[in-house]
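Retro notes - structure team

What went well: the batch runner handled both jobs without manual restarts.
What didn't: labels got mixed up in the shared folder, which is why I'm recording both outputs here explicitly, each with its sequence directly above its tokens.

Job 1
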Amino acid sequence: MLIFIILLTLILWYLYRFYSSLSDLPPGPLPIPIVGNLLSFVNVDRWEDKLVEWKQKYGDVFTIHIGLQRFVTVNSYKAAVKYFVKDGDSYTSKLTNDINEAIRGGKYGVIDTDGQLWLEQRRFALKVLRDFGLSKAQMEQRVLYEVEYIQDQIDSRINRGDKNINVEKYTDIAVGSIINAVLFGYRYTDGNEAEFYLLKETLSAGTERFSSVWGTFLAINSSLLTGTIAKPFLKYLTEKFAKVFDNLLKQIEEHKLNNDYSNQSTEAKDFVDAYMIEKCRLESNVEYNTTFSEKQLANVCLDLWVAGQETTSVTLTWTISYIVNHPETLNRKHKQNWIG
């Protein structure tokens, strides 16, 4: 009986602490301890519809709970500018994730880092991407080359009499070729397409695992579950991504064999070259504590893939599909005197 009373007291104390702490946060749907608001997303086809529903009920800024983690969501342009543009320095920290760090081999990359590491790596990546043709004629030529590739592939299928064509297959590899040319200096061809599909399938597998309700719960609350029910989940992802990192590090090693990065007059032909040249320059200054490393480089390359590949490919595929089904849209576009 005493044990029951103690347990009941602890539970009531926890519930009191849990719900009383909500008063310090913006309003939002009432969470369940440990689970949070996750049950609201079960059997919901589009999570964003639920967020829109809560926005209409609680306003542009509201709080939701995913497991033990609390998230304040910002749901309007005006609020986003207020918090992330005018006061951006106050919101640069990011949620740490044990599963993500296990996959990456530590705190690496740009997407999931903050502080000096994020600042230095982000600044360098943006500079190099600008230097290698973003918003320049050089990038336009790369894009036009891949557009011709997509057209040739579709025309070939049509000439063979195919009525059903999976356009995404071609937009996928075309976008991948542009990204890979910037990162490693070459596009994908019949001889090396396996590299692309390894990366594509791994990213898709990770997205699939993380996009489910309980996958999201495990990812966000990984510190609570690591070593228990999250262990198979973690093992699956680390094994998948290990193959990707092996391939990325292999390409970095090949670059090292073919270049003398200690020679600061070496001309960078791609992102890896530029990164390794900068790494050697910083390491020559023994007083400078650099965040540059080959493992970090592999993670930055992965981040650039994650940021650019699927989003661009899906958008292009949707656009092509829309134009095929609504050709009048393209006709109206052709009648415009200017674009921009």
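Job 2
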Amino acid sequence: MEEPHVASPKTARCRICDEATSPSFDALVLGRHRVGYHTCGSCGFLQTDEPFWLKEAYAAPIASVDVGLLSRNAANADATSLLIDRLLPQAERFLDHGGGYGIFTRMMRDRGYAFLHHDPHCENLFAPQHGCQPQAFDRAFDLTTAWEVFEHLVDPVATAREVLGFSRVLLFSTVLQPAAEIRSAEDWWYLVPETGQHVGFYTVDALHRLAERCGACLRSDGTNLHTLSREPLPRDPFASAPPTPRGPGRRSLLDADFADAMTRLRLRQAEPIGAATKPRQITRPSREAPSAKRLPGAGRSAPA
């Protein structure tokens, strides 16, 4: 019988600034591994124990509870189009790093932005003709995106340095920690220990330390969108813009679908090992969920 993992009480070094961390809480990862979460006393970065469970967590590279995959790609396409048109109007070379199924690459190419796709860990379903190995190119990309990648990284400094080695600008998303102290896995939805894939969580200070270690310039919207660039950007890439209106009387079902997916996952994890899977009646959560804001973007006239 497999011995359960015990959360480590040891002091670990911060994966961002290499300063000491202290234990904050522990959580049950993948429904069976007791894992410690540690906070950096210098930059506030929150990280798990050394993640021995990743092979298990990535048996499916896209988590089953990621019901926001499509709406997030649509919002990211809007934000990226807007940023390129405002700050990089002459840019021609783009890459989506860690691009998953290729949805974002396909959306951006449909808008006329010549994005390529890179993700060695996931099948490129929607842009298979546009995959690439970025290091093989003899000229830097103007912009590289990395959507919901950095919270998955065991060595975010190395990844940021690598990307900035072949790209002028890195635009990425990761949700920043809330203002209130995180004392347990129940305090913040973004931890999702049930999936085992999120292992590092950022503060603005942590992003500044990341930029310093990469010799880069940081811009952040203070919530979940950020840029690292070799040279300072001419102006704020996240200047406010009016949201795209939804249809009258409609609200997103994203939050309700996420809650439903998490309920199903927890029920599966509670099943005894080897037990037959039986259909369950799920009590669906309320559909009264706040709408997600989206930034408008201007597509280019001729799709590639």
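One thing worth noting from job 2: The CA atoms of residues 132 and 278 lie 42 Å apart.
We'll revisit the folder naming next retro.
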